[in-house]
Design goal:
The structure holds 2 protein chains of 2 kinds. Chain A is mainly α. Chain A contains 10 helices and no strands. Helix content of chain A is about 70%, strand content about 0%. Chain A is elongated and about 60 Å long. The N and C termini of chain B lie far apart (about 85 Å). Chain B has 8 helices and no strands. In chain B, helix 5 runs antiparallel to helix 7 (about 110-135) and helix 5 runs parallel beside helix 8 (about 145-170). Classes of the chains: A mainly alpha, B mainly alpha.
Chain lengths: ~210, ~170
């Protein structure tokens, strides 16, 4: 199956969210109020988004204290850029974009500090050590997929930028359009990233001798 | 029903439970599609099962936002830092007489690297304070002041070490 076909599939996996739901109308009003200096409205915006964002960040950086710090930093950046935020668009993808950048920067710094032996990818992220081994068969792969622990373990082995894409798509239930906004790329580029992250996950999972 | 249609209908949702009969039939027959569907399901399940803490960050965020840096606080911070630097600069050479092996106070005072490092240390603290102003809020531990002071102490230690070393090796610069 070619990349173009996969991209087409990914595009139809999730329909883009409806442009104007009741929740989005409330959020728009809160954002406009916050932009006019209403502290309580900004507080309510934080309340609405803090749990999903914290959950995403903790899953990505795998440390709750760092996740909380990055979550705070994300909202402080939102506050700093409040005037520039478009109240007609959902705030969540923008928050996820800032949170992802902060988390990837944190993981990048941490990898320089504590994991100097890891090879570095062309895009600056760490890449996992390749294990030269024979790939597992489909049956074995399916058996590994049955175990939540095994899947989680292999998710953690993924490079952070791949893990971020999978967490946003499967964990936060973003559509491809929202994923594209969260990653600050075009929709087709987001689909390619999702495809590559899945492919990488499948490759890691299929390696014999490391599970 | 071909692979393309099946993947369009199943993979995105990650669940095959609600899929129509022909889709389920195809998944039973096509191992590739079944594997792709299972990967989606496994990812959904594994991510949902990850432990995630809950926390109320509203108060902390609003507090950090309210304590944002302003010109008066930044200038005050820089002034305090300058005074502390000057005091330490005056005090430090006087302490040297108690250090065995240090060559001389005069040598310390005329040492250009020492002066340069004090200036550098002040700039670290001062620019950090300015950085906070640009950043829009005070970083934890009142950033600039603490980091600047820590930098000063480290530089003082380094200067002292070099001075002791130069004293032992027959004279300072």
């Amino acid at each position: 199956m070619g990349l173009a076909t996969i991209q087409m599939h990914l595009g139809q996996w999730k329909a883009p969210s409806a442009p104007s739901t009741a929740g989005q109308r409330v959020e728009r009003k809160l954002l406009e109020a916050a932009q006019n200096g209403d502290d309580a409205a900004f507080g309510r915006l934080i309340e609405r988004h803090q749990q999903p964002l914290l959950r995403y960040l903790c899953r990505l950086v795998r440390r709750s204290d760092v996740g909380q710090d990055l979550c705070q930093e994300t909202f402080l950046r939102a506050w700093r850029h409040l005037e520039k935020l478009d109240s007609n668009r959902s705030l969540a993808p923008w928050l996820y974009r800032v949170a992802t950048n902060l988390a990837l920067n944190y993981l990048e710094r941490r990898s320089w500090r504590f994991l100097p032996l890891l090879r570095r990818g062309r895009d600056g992220g760490t890449v996992e050590m390749e294990i030269l081994s024979e790939a597992a068969g489909a049956d074995e792969l399916m058996a590994r997929l049955q175990s939540i622990e095994t899947v989680q373990e292999h998710l953690e082995k993924l490079a952070p930028h791949h893990r971020a894409v999978l967490l946003l798509y499967y964990g936060e239930d973003l559509s491809c359009r929202e994923l594209a906004r969260a990653l600050d790329v075009t929709e087709s580029a987001a689909k390619v990233r999702l495809f590559r992250a899945r492919k990488r996950f499948k490759t890691l999972l299929s390696q014999r001798g490391d599970s | 029903m071909n692979c393309q249609e099946v993947r369009e209908r199943v993979l995105g949702s990650g669940s095959t439970e609600a899929a129509p009969f022909e889709v389920k039939q195809h998944l039973r027959e096509c191992r590739d599609c079944a594997l792709e569907a299972q990967i989606s399901e496994a990812l959904l399940g594994a991510i949902a099962a990850m432990e995630t803490p809950r926390a109320d960050l509203v108060g902390a965020i609003l507090a950090r936002r309210r304590s944002r840096a302003s010109w008066p606080t930044t200038l005050l911070q820089m002034a305090v830092f300058l005074v502390l630097t000057l005091c330490l600069g005056q005090l430090f050479p006087k302490l040297l007489v108690w250090v065995p092996g240090a060559s001389s106070v005069d040598a310390f005072l005329t040492w250009p690297i020492e002066k340069a490092s004090w200036v550098l240390a002040w700039f670290v603290g001062g620019f950090d304070a300015l950085g906070e102003l640009v950043h829009g809020y005070v970083k934890p531990l009142q950033g600039g002041l603490f980091r600047g002071l820590a930098g000063l102490l480290i530089l003082a230690g380094l200067n002292l070490g070099m001075l002791v070393h130069s004293g032992k090796s027959g004279g300072a610069a």
